[in-house]
Design goal:
Elements: E1 3-14, E2 17-28, E3 32-36, H1 43-50, E4 58-63, E5 78-81, H2 94-104, H3 109-122, H4 138-150, E6 156-160, H5 168-183, E7 187-191, H6 195-201, E8 204-209, E9 212-218, H7 219-227, E10 230-235, H8 241-248, E11 252-253, E12 259-262, H9 265-275, E13 280-285, H10 290-297
The structure holds adenosine-5'-triphosphate.
Protein name: Daunorubicin/doxorubicin resistance ATP-binding protein DrrA
Keywords: ATP-binding, Hydrolase, Nucleotide-binding, Transport
GO molecular function, one term: ATP binding
Length: 301
């Protein structure tokens, strides 16, 4: 399948600071890539280069094979919601904004009206269609930004913190929308510090640190790789202090079931042998979550 986004070797320097240092990203239709990293890692700078808002010092971007830096029309393939940049006019209503941006990106007026109404309903902003943006709540403005990005039905969506500041229900609605858009074949690049959102949505993960991609892979593979040698051991009843003190010397951790064992499978068998004849309820390899992965990769574990 052809790449919707193909970015290679992107570099950006601000004075002496190299903010992005050789970042390559690719996205196919239907994929959600979670682009993660600590504060100041280079995510927004990268996204701005992808969106044609910043000129890279090096590297290339192709959107469906076309470079937005050589051919601005390539940006037609892209819709972006960038943090702190709610690309809407404050003194225009929600509906006027959507129609305006729809027409500016090539929709006919009637089609823009229909699409705007449908998006407003979908994001539960229907009752605010005729409200000026400056009178919408922060979360409503955030949802309107998403609607603006979707007006021209782009193949690629760049979503920088799309659920930030949304209430639980709205965040879940936006999450469901992202999932539906991916199922409908959109390629989505998602930046967020909400790792549980990223884990639920992303088919692939890329972690950037100090301008470099330090980890990239399909979500299940990444989680599997980091699950490592980490087991949960559940006994029917809590272990006695005497048992516990002996088993701790073999690597058992925790005060009550489920206990945790970090180590290889030889060590696990020694531990299980020593546990005999204590009845066991469950022995399972613990699953890593994206938080574990993130903390290990950015080196703060
Ligand atoms: N216009 C600019 N001028 C100077 N330095 C900048 C500029 N924009 C970004 N930087 C610096 O580049 C580095 C990367 O910033 P960037 O905004 O890309 O990080 P980020 O990963 O998006 O962080 P966050 O998670 O905090 O949003 C930071 O050190 C930042 O201070």
């Amino acid at each position: 399948m052809n790449a919707v986004l193909e970015a290679t070797g992107l570099r950006k320097r601000f004075g002496n600071l190299v903010a992005v240092d050789g970042v390559s990203l690719h996205l196919a239709a239907g994929e959600v890539l979670a682009f993660l990293g600590p504060n100041g890692a280079g995510k927004t700078t990268t996204i701005k280069m992808l969106a044609g808002l910043l000129w890279p010092d090096g590297g290339q971007v192709h959107l469906l094979g076309k470079s937005p830096h050589q051919n601005p029309w390539a940006l037609r393939h892209l819709g972006a919601v960038l943090e702190g940049n709610r690309n809407v006019y404050w003194r225009m209503t929600a509906l006027e904004n959507l129609v305006y941006f729809g027409v500016a990106r090539g929709l006919r007026y009637q089609a823009a009206q229909r699409r705007a109404q449908a998006l407003l309903e979908q994001l539960e902003l229907g009752s605010k269609s005729h409200t000026e943006v400056r009178h919408l709540s922060r979360g409503m403005q955030q949802k309107l930004s998403l609607a603006v990005a979707l007006m021209h039905d782009p193949e690629l969506l760049l979503l920088d913190e799309p659920t930030l500041g949304l209430d639980v229900e709205s965040a879940l609605r936006v999450e469901a929308m992202v999932r539906e858009l991916a199922q409908a074949g959109k390629a989505i690049l998602l930046t967020t510090h909400q790792l549980e959102v990223a884990q639920r949505l992303a088919s692939r993960i890329a972690i950037i640190q100090q301008g470099h991609i330090v980890l990239e892979g399909r979500t299940p593979e990444v989680l599997g790789r980091f699950a490592g040698e980490h087991y949960l051991i559940e006994t029917e009843t809590p272990l006695s202090p005497a048992q516990l003190s002996h088993l701790r010397s073999l690597g058992l951790e925790g005060e009550e079931p489920p206990y945790v064992y970090h180590g290889d499978s030889d060590g696990l068998w020694r531990l299980l042998e020593a546990l005999k004849p204590t009845p066991l309820k469950k022995v399972a390899r613990a699953e890593a979550d994206l938080l574990d992965v993130f903390l290990k990769v950015v080196g703060r574990a």
